[in-house]
Amino acid sequence: MIVDLIRSRATLEAEIWTLRxxxxxxxxxxxxxxxxxxxxxxxxxxxxxxxPKVCDALAIVKPDTIVRWHRAGFRSxxxxxxxxxxxxxxxxLEIRRLIREMSIANPLWxxxxxxxxxxxxxxxxxxxxVAKYMxxxxxxxxxxxxxxxxxxxxxIAAMDLFVVPTISFRLLxxxxxxxxxxxxxxxxxxxxxxxxxxxxxxxxxxxxxxxAPQYLIRDRDGAYGEVFIRRLRSMGIRDxxxxxxxxxxxxxxxxxxxxxxxxxxxxxxVFGERHLRQVLLLYMNYYNETRTHLSLNKDAxxxxxxxxxxRIICRPILGGLxxxxxxx
Length: 328
Description:
There is one protein chain. A hairpin with a 4-residue loop joins β6 (312-317) and β7 (322-327). Mean pLDDT is 85; it is low at 143-149. Strands 3-2-1-4-5 form a five-stranded mixed β-sheet, sandwiched between helices. Strands 6-7 form a two-stranded antiparallel ribbon. The protein folds into three domains: 2-81, no CATH class; 93-138 and 306-327, no CATH class; 153-289, 2-Layer Sandwich (Nucleotidyltransferase, domain 5), CATH 3.30.420. The chain has helices at 2-6, 9-29, 38-50, 63-81, 93-105, 111-120, 127-133, 196-207, 226-234, 251-263, 273-289; strands at residues 156-165, 171-179, 185-191, 215-218, 238-241, 312-317, 322-327. The protein is 42% helix and 14% strand. The protein is an alpha/beta fold. It has eleven helices and seven strands.
């Protein structure tokens, strides 16, 4: 540019004509659409801002293109000026890895369950962040449920029978009793022939050493005979059978049976009564002492204290079907 200041005008015009002719030759041989780098666009836009009349000398691009580049740069500049300066804090890498490991090791757990376990480990993050960093799996999400019994929950218990097939295709009957107050499993019984006498004995064993509930909810199964009803009256328990064909009136027990099937017996081949009783007792200990519940504010029926100090360890439960996380 300094040399051009001392050159003659005729020499400069001759050089300009030569460059224009070369551009015409290149335009005939070049493709219809040319690619420009960011530096090229910056040079063109800068010259346009300093000397708007240079648009008359444009040969390989149109003036509208230069104007569009300028507007795009204007938008990018103000997008950069108005960028947010703060936001949600990032989740540390080790916590993200722990969430992914927990979701892979426990395929039956959803984001609320994993979030409850993290709270018990002293890791305070949002449930949406847990769902974000979980391993993606196919299948419908776990569904919530609404309870209809809210008053006097501490004095109400529910019972129900469920069927479990064995390896020899024999049917076993499981009897469960659950307390409404803390969703705690009180008793599990297993038999091949549920009679009224057997169920009455199970009630005695379940509430013989502890305080009996004021109300007991059950369905209208024929197995609950006169012996069972007399036993309830002798123990001071008010019998509350549900309406015919209304399982929703015993929602806590029905929901618990669904959890037992989805989280335990559907993944285990049962060999006999003794094996099923052992499996159900292990699941009862896991359910009451370890498993977190939405209805209990992500706490276990037997309340778990949050642990904040120590190294996180993983202990398998039911052969690795579930895991317990704690700090040591």
